[in-house]
Specification:
33% of the residues lie in helices and 33% in strands. The protein is of the alpha+beta class.
Length: 411
Protein backbone atom coordinates (compact mmCIF):
# COMPACT_ATOMS: atom_id res chain seq x y z
CA UNK A 1 0.00 0.00 0.00
CA UNK A 2 3.02 2.33 0.17
CA UNK A 3 2.47 3.05 -3.46
CA UNK A 4 -0.74 4.93 -2.59
CA UNK A 5 -0.09 6.19 0.93
CA UNK A 6 0.75 9.73 -0.17
CA UNK A 7 -2.01 9.94 -2.77
CA UNK A 8 -4.96 10.07 -0.35
CA UNK A 9 -5.29 13.15 1.92
CA UNK A 10 -5.01 12.42 5.65
CA UNK A 11 -6.73 14.58 8.26
CA UNK A 12 -5.05 15.20 11.64
CA UNK A 13 -6.42 16.92 14.74
CA UNK A 14 -3.66 17.93 17.12
CA UNK A 15 -4.92 19.08 20.53
CA UNK A 16 -3.17 20.60 23.53
CA UNK A 17 -5.17 20.03 26.70
CA UNK A 18 -4.42 22.56 29.43
CA UNK A 19 -5.58 21.46 32.90
CA UNK A 20 -5.95 24.22 35.48
CA UNK A 21 -7.86 24.92 38.67
CA UNK A 22 -10.97 25.96 36.73
CA UNK A 23 -11.04 22.83 34.58
CA UNK A 24 -9.70 22.25 31.07
CA UNK A 25 -9.11 24.42 28.03
CA UNK A 26 -8.18 23.24 24.56
CA UNK A 27 -6.02 24.58 21.75
CA UNK A 28 -6.23 22.67 18.50
CA UNK A 29 -5.11 22.58 14.88
CA UNK A 30 -6.89 20.69 12.12
CA UNK A 31 -4.32 19.75 9.50
CA UNK A 32 -4.64 18.09 6.12
CA UNK A 33 -1.63 16.13 4.93
CA UNK A 34 -1.04 14.83 1.42
CA UNK A 35 2.42 13.39 0.99
CA UNK A 36 4.95 16.00 2.10
CA UNK A 37 2.42 18.83 1.84
CA UNK A 38 0.54 19.96 4.95
CA UNK A 39 -2.21 22.53 5.18
CA UNK A 40 -3.83 23.96 8.30
CA UNK A 41 -7.55 24.01 7.59
CA UNK A 42 -8.82 25.08 11.04
CA UNK A 43 -7.40 26.49 14.31
CA UNK A 44 -8.82 27.55 17.69
CA UNK A 45 -7.45 28.65 21.05
CA UNK A 46 -8.84 28.59 24.62
CA UNK A 47 -11.89 26.40 23.95
CA UNK A 48 -13.61 25.39 27.18
CA UNK A 49 -16.24 23.01 25.77
CA UNK A 50 -14.89 19.79 24.29
CA UNK A 51 -17.95 19.30 22.07
CA UNK A 52 -16.79 22.24 19.95
CA UNK A 53 -13.81 20.09 19.01
CA UNK A 54 -15.54 16.71 18.91
CA UNK A 55 -18.10 17.99 16.42
CA UNK A 56 -15.27 18.84 14.01
CA UNK A 57 -13.79 15.34 14.04
CA UNK A 58 -14.52 13.47 10.80
CA UNK A 59 -14.48 9.71 10.38
CA UNK A 60 -10.92 8.52 9.97
CA UNK A 61 -9.31 11.58 11.59
CA UNK A 62 -5.96 10.96 13.26
CA UNK A 63 -5.90 12.54 16.73
CA UNK A 64 -2.77 13.61 18.64
CA UNK A 65 -3.16 14.80 22.23
CA UNK A 66 -0.62 16.70 24.32
CA UNK A 67 -1.53 17.22 28.00
CA UNK A 68 -0.09 20.06 30.08
CA UNK A 69 -0.84 21.90 33.31
CA UNK A 70 -2.13 20.44 36.51
CA UNK A 71 -1.32 16.77 36.94
CA UNK A 72 1.69 16.94 34.61
CA UNK A 73 5.11 17.10 36.26
CA UNK A 74 8.25 18.08 34.34
CA UNK A 75 11.63 17.65 35.97
CA UNK A 76 15.30 17.84 34.97
CA UNK A 77 17.13 14.71 36.00
CA UNK A 78 20.89 14.30 36.39
CA UNK A 79 22.10 11.04 34.86
CA UNK A 80 25.40 10.59 36.76
CA UNK A 81 26.44 7.69 34.49
CA UNK A 82 23.60 5.52 35.77
CA UNK A 83 21.34 3.45 33.55
CA UNK A 84 17.97 5.13 33.33
CA UNK A 85 14.78 3.13 32.78
CA UNK A 86 11.13 3.82 33.51
CA UNK A 87 11.38 2.52 37.07
CA UNK A 88 14.37 4.77 37.86
CA UNK A 89 12.71 7.78 36.26
CA UNK A 90 9.52 7.23 38.23
CA UNK A 91 11.46 6.98 41.44
CA UNK A 92 12.84 10.47 40.79
CA UNK A 93 9.25 11.73 41.02
CA UNK A 94 7.47 9.30 43.31
CA UNK A 95 9.55 6.71 45.14
CA UNK A 96 7.78 3.35 45.53
CA UNK A 97 5.07 4.31 42.99
CA UNK A 98 3.61 1.70 40.60
CA UNK A 99 5.13 2.37 37.19
CA UNK A 100 2.07 0.87 35.47
CA UNK A 101 0.01 3.82 36.69
CA UNK A 102 2.04 6.48 34.89
CA UNK A 103 3.04 7.63 31.40
CA UNK A 104 6.47 9.18 31.00
CA UNK A 105 7.98 11.25 28.18
CA UNK A 106 11.68 12.09 28.05
CA UNK A 107 14.02 14.48 26.27
CA UNK A 108 17.81 14.22 26.42
CA UNK A 109 19.44 17.53 27.30
CA UNK A 110 23.07 16.47 27.13
CA UNK A 111 25.27 13.56 28.19
CA UNK A 112 24.73 14.35 31.87
CA UNK A 113 21.05 15.26 32.10
CA UNK A 114 17.58 14.82 30.65
CA UNK A 115 14.11 16.26 31.00
CA UNK A 116 11.23 13.96 31.94
CA UNK A 117 7.48 14.63 32.05
CA UNK A 118 5.04 12.37 33.85
CA UNK A 119 1.26 11.99 34.18
CA UNK A 120 -1.04 9.47 35.77
CA UNK A 121 -2.88 7.14 33.39
CA UNK A 122 -6.24 7.82 35.00
CA UNK A 123 -5.91 11.50 33.99
CA UNK A 124 -5.23 10.41 30.42
CA UNK A 125 -8.10 7.92 30.44
CA UNK A 126 -10.47 10.61 31.71
CA UNK A 127 -9.57 12.72 28.67
CA UNK A 128 -9.64 9.78 26.25
CA UNK A 129 -13.17 8.91 27.37
CA UNK A 130 -14.29 12.18 25.80
CA UNK A 131 -13.42 10.68 22.39
CA UNK A 132 -14.84 7.24 23.11
CA UNK A 133 -17.85 7.50 20.78
CA UNK A 134 -16.01 9.27 17.97
CA UNK A 135 -14.86 7.23 14.98
CA UNK A 136 -11.30 8.52 15.05
CA UNK A 137 -7.79 7.13 15.61
CA UNK A 138 -5.89 8.38 18.67
CA UNK A 139 -2.29 7.87 17.61
CA UNK A 140 -0.37 9.58 20.37
CA UNK A 141 -0.88 10.97 23.88
CA UNK A 142 2.07 12.92 25.28
CA UNK A 143 2.48 14.34 28.80
CA UNK A 144 4.23 17.69 28.87
CA UNK A 145 5.49 20.08 26.18
CA UNK A 146 8.81 18.39 25.46
CA UNK A 147 7.77 17.53 21.89
CA UNK A 148 8.48 21.18 20.98
CA UNK A 149 12.10 20.10 20.56
CA UNK A 150 11.11 18.63 17.18
CA UNK A 151 10.24 22.04 15.73
CA UNK A 152 12.89 24.25 17.38
CA UNK A 153 14.84 24.48 14.06
CA UNK A 154 11.70 25.93 12.45
CA UNK A 155 11.31 28.73 15.01
CA UNK A 156 13.30 31.97 14.93
CA UNK A 157 14.67 32.12 18.51
CA UNK A 158 16.24 35.43 19.51
CA UNK A 159 16.13 34.94 23.29
CA UNK A 160 17.28 31.82 25.14
CA UNK A 161 14.22 32.23 27.37
CA UNK A 162 11.52 31.05 24.98
CA UNK A 163 7.96 31.83 26.10
CA UNK A 164 5.27 29.79 24.36
CA UNK A 165 1.78 30.03 25.79
CA UNK A 166 1.90 28.84 29.40
CA UNK A 167 5.38 27.40 28.96
CA UNK A 168 8.86 28.77 29.54
CA UNK A 169 11.83 27.03 27.93
CA UNK A 170 15.53 27.65 28.35
CA UNK A 171 17.12 27.08 24.95
CA UNK A 172 20.88 26.68 24.65
CA UNK A 173 22.63 25.66 21.42
CA UNK A 174 19.25 25.04 19.74
CA UNK A 175 18.35 22.49 22.42
CA UNK A 176 15.95 22.69 25.34
CA UNK A 177 18.02 22.86 28.52
CA UNK A 178 15.29 23.43 31.10
CA UNK A 179 11.55 24.04 31.47
CA UNK A 180 9.14 25.72 33.89
CA UNK A 181 5.40 26.38 33.74
CA UNK A 182 4.56 30.03 33.11
CA UNK A 183 0.93 30.50 34.05
CA UNK A 184 -1.33 33.49 33.68
CA UNK A 185 0.56 35.19 30.85
CA UNK A 186 -1.73 37.72 29.26
CA UNK A 187 0.45 38.91 26.40
CA UNK A 188 0.29 36.69 23.36
CA UNK A 189 2.60 36.69 20.37
CA UNK A 190 2.41 35.35 16.84
CA UNK A 191 5.10 32.92 15.75
CA UNK A 192 6.06 32.15 12.14
CA UNK A 193 6.88 28.55 11.25
CA UNK A 194 8.02 28.08 7.66
CA UNK A 195 5.78 30.91 6.48
CA UNK A 196 2.77 29.79 8.56
CA UNK A 197 1.93 32.36 11.26
CA UNK A 198 0.44 30.79 14.41
CA UNK A 199 -0.72 32.05 17.75
CA UNK A 200 1.87 30.95 20.34
CA UNK A 201 -0.81 28.86 22.11
CA UNK A 202 -1.02 26.64 19.03
CA UNK A 203 2.70 25.87 18.86
CA UNK A 204 2.54 22.89 21.25
CA UNK A 205 -0.36 21.43 19.23
CA UNK A 206 1.68 21.87 16.04
CA UNK A 207 4.70 20.25 17.73
CA UNK A 208 2.50 17.29 18.70
CA UNK A 209 1.43 16.84 15.08
CA UNK A 210 5.00 17.20 13.81
CA UNK A 211 6.35 14.64 16.27
CA UNK A 212 3.62 12.16 15.30
CA UNK A 213 4.74 12.13 11.65
CA UNK A 214 8.51 12.27 12.28
CA UNK A 215 8.97 9.73 15.09
CA UNK A 216 7.41 6.42 15.96
CA UNK A 217 7.44 6.59 19.76
CA UNK A 218 4.24 6.47 21.76
CA UNK A 219 2.75 5.02 24.90
CA UNK A 220 2.26 1.58 23.44
CA UNK A 221 0.91 0.16 26.68
CA UNK A 222 -2.23 2.30 26.43
CA UNK A 223 -5.02 0.08 25.06
CA UNK A 224 -6.62 3.02 23.24
CA UNK A 225 -3.37 3.74 21.38
CA UNK A 226 -2.82 0.08 20.54
CA UNK A 227 -6.39 -0.36 19.27
CA UNK A 228 -6.29 2.88 17.28
CA UNK A 229 -3.04 1.95 15.56
CA UNK A 230 -4.37 -1.51 14.74
CA UNK A 231 -7.67 -0.13 13.46
CA UNK A 232 -5.85 2.56 11.47
CA UNK A 233 -3.77 -0.11 9.80
CA UNK A 234 -6.88 -1.96 8.62
CA UNK A 235 -8.58 1.35 7.78
CA UNK A 236 -5.63 2.26 5.55
CA UNK A 237 -5.77 -1.15 3.89
CA UNK A 238 -9.49 -0.65 3.29
CA UNK A 239 -9.17 2.96 2.11
CA UNK A 240 -6.17 2.26 -0.11
CA UNK A 241 -7.89 -0.85 -1.39
CA UNK A 242 -10.94 1.21 -2.33
CA UNK A 243 -8.63 3.80 -3.89
CA UNK A 244 -6.81 1.11 -5.86
CA UNK A 245 -10.05 -0.56 -6.94
CA UNK A 246 -11.46 2.83 -7.98
CA UNK A 247 -8.39 3.49 -10.11
CA UNK A 248 -8.52 -0.03 -11.53
CA UNK A 249 -12.26 0.31 -12.22
CA UNK A 250 -11.78 3.71 -13.83
CA UNK A 251 -8.88 2.38 -15.92
CA UNK A 252 -10.97 -0.64 -16.90
CA UNK A 253 -13.93 1.57 -17.85
CA UNK A 254 -11.63 3.89 -19.77
CA UNK A 255 -10.05 0.97 -21.64
CA UNK A 256 -13.49 -0.52 -22.32
CA UNK A 257 -14.71 2.85 -23.56
CA UNK A 258 -11.71 3.28 -25.86
CA UNK A 259 -12.06 -0.30 -27.12
CA UNK A 260 -15.80 0.17 -27.57
CA UNK A 261 -15.22 3.41 -29.47
CA UNK A 262 -12.60 1.71 -31.65
CA UNK A 263 -14.66 -1.39 -32.34
CA UNK A 264 -17.79 0.69 -32.80
CA UNK A 265 -15.97 2.79 -35.38
CA UNK A 266 -14.58 -0.35 -37.04
CA UNK A 267 -18.06 -1.86 -37.00
CA UNK A 268 -19.52 1.23 -38.64
CA UNK A 269 -16.83 1.07 -41.34
CA UNK A 270 -17.50 -2.63 -41.86
CA UNK A 271 -21.24 -2.05 -42.02
CA UNK A 272 -20.65 0.71 -44.57
CA UNK A 273 -18.47 -1.67 -46.59
CA UNK A 274 -21.11 -4.41 -46.28
CA UNK A 275 -23.79 -2.01 -47.48
CA UNK A 276 -21.52 -1.02 -50.38
CA UNK A 277 -20.87 -4.65 -51.23
CA UNK A 278 -24.56 -5.42 -50.90
CA UNK A 279 -25.32 -2.70 -53.42
CA UNK A 280 -22.59 -4.05 -55.68
CA UNK A 281 -23.88 -7.59 -55.27
CA UNK A 282 -27.43 -6.47 -56.07
CA UNK A 283 -26.11 -4.54 -59.06
CA UNK A 284 -24.02 -7.52 -60.23
CA UNK A 285 -26.99 -9.86 -59.80
CA UNK A 286 -29.15 -7.43 -61.74
CA UNK A 287 -26.54 -7.21 -64.51
CA UNK A 288 -26.15 -10.99 -64.60
CA UNK A 289 -29.89 -11.37 -64.81
CA UNK A 290 -30.04 -8.80 -67.59
CA UNK A 291 -27.15 -10.47 -69.45
CA UNK A 292 -28.70 -13.90 -69.09
CA UNK A 293 -32.01 -12.55 -70.33
CA UNK A 294 -30.33 -10.89 -73.30
CA UNK A 295 -28.35 -14.03 -74.00
CA UNK A 296 -31.55 -15.99 -73.93
CA UNK A 297 -33.23 -13.54 -76.28
CA UNK A 298 -30.27 -13.46 -78.60
CA UNK A 299 -29.91 -17.22 -78.48
CA UNK A 300 -33.61 -17.64 -79.19
CA UNK A 301 -33.30 -15.29 -82.12
CA UNK A 302 -30.37 -17.22 -83.50
CA UNK A 303 -28.08 -14.16 -83.49
CA UNK A 304 -25.34 -16.03 -81.73
CA UNK A 305 -25.01 -18.29 -84.74
CA UNK A 306 -22.36 -16.43 -86.74
CA UNK A 307 -22.63 -18.82 -89.70
CA UNK A 308 -26.30 -17.96 -90.20
CA UNK A 309 -25.66 -14.24 -90.10
CA UNK A 310 -22.74 -14.52 -92.50
CA UNK A 311 -24.80 -16.63 -94.83
CA UNK A 312 -27.70 -14.14 -94.96
CA UNK A 313 -25.41 -11.18 -95.56
CA UNK A 314 -23.41 -13.05 -98.20
CA UNK A 315 -26.60 -14.05 -100.06
CA UNK A 316 -27.88 -10.46 -100.06
CA UNK A 317 -24.58 -9.03 -101.30
CA UNK A 318 -24.06 -11.74 -103.92
CA UNK A 319 -26.67 -10.40 -106.32
CA UNK A 320 -26.67 -6.75 -105.26
CA UNK A 321 -26.52 -4.40 -108.31
CA UNK A 322 -23.80 -1.76 -108.25
CA UNK A 323 -26.21 1.15 -108.53
CA UNK A 324 -28.09 0.15 -105.39
CA UNK A 325 -26.62 1.54 -102.16
CA UNK A 326 -27.56 -0.20 -98.92
CA UNK A 327 -27.77 1.89 -95.74
CA UNK A 328 -28.83 -0.71 -93.21
CA UNK A 329 -29.50 -4.45 -92.89
CA UNK A 330 -31.25 -5.53 -89.70
CA UNK A 331 -31.17 -9.28 -89.19
CA UNK A 332 -33.82 -10.32 -86.68
CA UNK A 333 -34.72 -6.74 -85.74
CA UNK A 334 -35.44 -6.00 -82.07
CA UNK A 335 -38.73 -4.58 -80.89
CA UNK A 336 -39.64 -3.11 -77.44
CA UNK A 337 -43.07 -3.95 -76.02
CA UNK A 338 -44.54 -0.61 -74.95
CA UNK A 339 -46.69 -2.20 -72.26
CA UNK A 340 -44.28 -4.66 -70.66
CA UNK A 341 -41.08 -2.80 -71.61
CA UNK A 342 -39.59 -6.11 -72.71
CA UNK A 343 -37.29 -6.50 -75.69
CA UNK A 344 -38.00 -9.18 -78.27
CA UNK A 345 -36.45 -10.23 -81.60
CA UNK A 346 -38.27 -11.10 -84.79
CA UNK A 347 -36.28 -14.21 -85.67
CA UNK A 348 -37.90 -14.65 -89.09
CA UNK A 349 -37.34 -11.18 -90.54
CA UNK A 350 -34.57 -9.21 -92.20
CA UNK A 351 -35.06 -5.48 -92.84
CA UNK A 352 -33.15 -3.90 -95.71
CA UNK A 353 -32.83 -0.14 -96.29
CA UNK A 354 -31.04 1.71 -99.06
CA UNK A 355 -31.37 4.02 -102.07
CA UNK A 356 -31.20 3.91 -105.86
CA UNK A 357 -32.17 6.04 -108.89
CA UNK A 358 -33.09 3.01 -111.02
CA UNK A 359 -36.28 1.36 -109.85
CA UNK A 360 -35.93 -1.45 -112.42
CA UNK A 361 -32.67 -2.58 -110.90
CA UNK A 362 -34.30 -2.65 -107.44
CA UNK A 363 -37.21 -4.63 -108.86
CA UNK A 364 -34.89 -7.15 -110.58
CA UNK A 365 -32.84 -7.57 -107.41
CA UNK A 366 -35.96 -8.24 -105.34
CA UNK A 367 -37.11 -10.71 -107.96
CA UNK A 368 -33.79 -12.58 -107.74
CA UNK A 369 -34.00 -12.64 -103.95
CA UNK A 370 -37.50 -14.05 -104.01
CA UNK A 371 -36.17 -17.01 -105.86
CA UNK A 372 -33.97 -17.96 -102.87
CA UNK A 373 -35.30 -20.98 -101.03
CA UNK A 374 -34.50 -19.49 -97.61
CA UNK A 375 -36.73 -16.49 -98.44
CA UNK A 376 -40.41 -17.08 -98.04
CA UNK A 377 -41.57 -13.62 -99.22
CA UNK A 378 -40.50 -10.00 -99.61
CA UNK A 379 -42.74 -7.04 -98.68
CA UNK A 380 -41.83 -3.57 -99.89
CA UNK A 381 -42.51 -1.27 -96.98
CA UNK A 382 -41.34 1.95 -98.55
CA UNK A 383 -40.14 3.26 -101.92
CA UNK A 384 -39.88 6.99 -102.49
CA UNK A 385 -38.95 7.80 -106.12
CA UNK A 386 -40.93 10.70 -107.59
CA UNK A 387 -38.56 11.95 -110.27
CA UNK A 388 -36.38 9.84 -112.60
CA UNK A 389 -33.32 12.00 -112.12
CA UNK A 390 -33.53 11.79 -108.31
CA UNK A 391 -32.38 9.00 -105.99
CA UNK A 392 -35.21 7.16 -104.29
CA UNK A 393 -35.12 5.57 -100.83
CA UNK A 394 -36.48 2.12 -100.23
CA UNK A 395 -37.11 -0.26 -97.38
CA UNK A 396 -38.33 -3.83 -97.66
CA UNK A 397 -38.86 -6.75 -95.34
CA UNK A 398 -37.63 -10.29 -96.00
CA UNK A 399 -39.61 -13.06 -94.37
CA UNK A 400 -37.49 -16.18 -93.94
CA UNK A 401 -38.69 -19.62 -94.80
CA UNK A 402 -38.32 -22.62 -92.52
CA UNK A 403 -35.50 -23.91 -94.66
CA UNK A 404 -32.39 -23.03 -92.68
CA UNK A 405 -29.10 -22.25 -94.38
CA UNK A 406 -26.41 -24.79 -94.41
CA UNK A 407 -28.35 -27.53 -96.26
CA UNK A 408 -27.57 -28.69 -99.75
CA UNK A 409 -30.61 -26.99 -101.35
CA UNK A 410 -29.72 -23.37 -100.68
CA UNK A 411 -29.13 -21.04 -103.65
Amino acid sequence: MKLFQHKIPEVYLSIEVMINDEGRSYNYLKIQRKGDNIKIVDRRCDINIITEIVNKIETGTRVIITINGRGVLVKKIELKDQKIDKHVLLSKFFPHANEGDFIIDTLKVDEESMLASIIRKDVINEILNLFDKIKCFILKVTPGPLNISNILPLINISNPKLLIGDHKFLVLDDRINDYTLARYRKQEQMISIQGEVLNEKLIIAFAGFFSSITENTSQSDLPVILNSRRELKFYNYYKHGIYFLSIALFASLLINFLMFAKYSNDNELLEAEVDTYKELIVEVESLEKSINLKKELVSTAGILNKQILSYYLDQLAECLPEKIVLHDISVFPAEMDKRTKKLSFDAGVILVEGETNEPLLLNNWIYILKDKRWIRKIDILEFDHNKPEETGKFRFEISLSETMPGNNNKQ
